[in-house]
Amino acid sequence: GAVVSQHPSWVICKSGTSVKIECRSLDFQATTMFWYRQFPKQSLMLMATSNEGSKATYEQGVEKDKFLINHASLTLSTLTVTSAHPEDSSFYICSATDHRAPPVAFFGQGTRLTVV
Amino acid sequence: GIQVEQSPPDLILQEGANSTLRCNFSDSVNNLQWFHQNPWGQLINLFYIPSGTKQNGRLSATTVATERYSLLYISSSQTTDSGVYFCAGIGAQKLVFGQGTRLTINP
Question: Looking at the partner chain, which of A46, A93, A107 has a beta carbon nearest the beta carbon of B96?
Fold first, then answer.
């Protein structure tokens, strides 16, 4: 199957700083990428849909000024958590869809963010 | 909007038993995928199954699109099958997850 690489796997940052998470599709072009957030023992909550070359579409309740998403190329999307606070600590995971056929979604390995 | 519901939320079985996990989804879902999330958080693709039946070893899945449900079967469960299983529905350019089924296989 297709490979999606997410980096970093884990990060610890101080409150008030910003953190950037990268999501790359390694062997296919992804016009659409999804970003999710997962709290312990809960499901994955869709944060936003990232389309190459256009603004991301955020889900209701997700602050677009806090979670900046950039999809500058067909193989790279980034999520920047700005002015991070302890309540932003979570597991963030990205997905990219290989549209060649069939439209299967593949996931990165996730990033565990801890804000101290 | 897209709605995906899974049952049961928790399932505890003995090794060797068979498991059936269910996923109900709304009309706006066009395609369906099943995943297994390992202890490190990685989501492993199990099936892409908008309709019909597929099998992969001890795992199989059936989606009845007209009745808006999908089933994941695990036969002869092993302790390594333990973990959380998610179904996710694709529709309106979104991929939405169900709440998951936490499967525990005891030796």
Answer: A46
